[in-house]
Predict the structure.
Amino acid sequence: MTATSFLLVLLAALIHATRNLLAKKAGGGAAFVFLGVVAMVAIYLPVMLVWWWQTPSLIVDITAMQWLFMAMSAIVHVAYSLSLQRGYQTADYGVVYPIARGAGPFLSSVAAILFLGEAVTVASALGVVGSLWR
C-alpha cells in the first residue's frame, strides 16, 4: 500500500468516526439522517454532474434492474442510518459504534456465502470472526 493510499484510508476512518460521534452528540433521529443525505447530495452532485457531462452515454446504459438495485441500496442505507440513530439515542457510543461497525462485514460475508456461493477459506473465516471483535 502506498503512503497516499494509507493516508486516504486514515482520513476516511477519521471522517467516519467523527460523523458517528457527531450523530451521537446531536441526539439525531430522522432529522439528522435527512441533513446527512442533503449534505451528501450537495457534495456528490457536482462530481456526478461533471462525470455525466464527460460520459453521458453511461447514464443511458443503466438498466432498469440497476436502477432498482440502486434504489434498494438507498433504502437499506436510510434504514441503517435510522437504526444507528436509534441506537445512539438509547445506548452508549462505546457500545453502539463497535457493534454497528462489526455487523456490516459480518452480515455481508454471511450473505455472500449463503446467496452468492462464496468459498470460505481460513483467512476469510478469520476476517469475518475478527470483524466481530473490534
The mean pLDDT is 86. Helices lie at 3-26, 30-54, 57-60, 64-90, 93-116, 122-131. The first helix runs from residue 3 to 26. The CA atoms of residues 17 and 83 lie 17 Å apart.
